[in-house]
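Progress narrative, Year 2. Work on SAM-dependent methyltransferase from Paraclostridium benzoelyticum advanced from sequence curation to structure prediction during this period.
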Amino acid sequence: MCNEEVLYENESKERVCYFCKKTYESAIVCKNGHYVCDSCHSSDALTAITNYCLNSDSINPLEMAVDLMKHPAIKMHGPEHHYLVPAVLSTAFLNKTNEKEKLKSLLDECQKRAKNVLGGFCGFYGACGAGVGCGIYTSLIQESGPMNKEEWGLCNLMTSKALENISKYGGPRCCKRDSFTAIETAIDFTKEHLNVDLDKTLDLKCNFNSLNKECLNSKCKFYTDNELALELN
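Result:
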């Protein structure tokens, strides 16, 4: 979580897992007090995203995305981001509207749809999966389908807005930059068109650049030359 050394203490204590928020007895913790349970540590990316969202009360999808991107199963690039984007947006929306009881079934459907957005979709199909994920989110929240009218239009408008903002950077792709851009766009869209005001991190800084040999560096608004853990200012 913070690149600090992991400590193995002599005495087990109650620890709250950074991802699933459940409490366990453990003697393993980092110098800054972060603890990750065995289940989360060994889970695959999609399971990690689902478990985190089900146990989060946040209404800030950018903050949630940053947390999840620290998970070892979520790589620098990969199709797991196609699920991560609509998952954190949907979770924040339902937390804000006090409809958390809908989240489990919504995430199940969200994951099914996101799996259809293949890796490399951005370059091979001309539609970044993070942007498509915003359309998935809008469709799920509105319970929209191919035969809806206003909802159908909003879903496609949401995707187009996200893709437009993603496209402004040009290539090559960066799953972190594209996800942050898509989520920022969706937060603004949600306020304007769905009348729900989600929290938004105004100065998001990312230093995954050390893991990304194609990083745009200072040409990306999220770039920082700080080589420590990814920070939210």
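Strands lie at 6-16, 23-30, 204-205, 231-232. Residues 61 and 88 are 5 Å apart (CA to CA).
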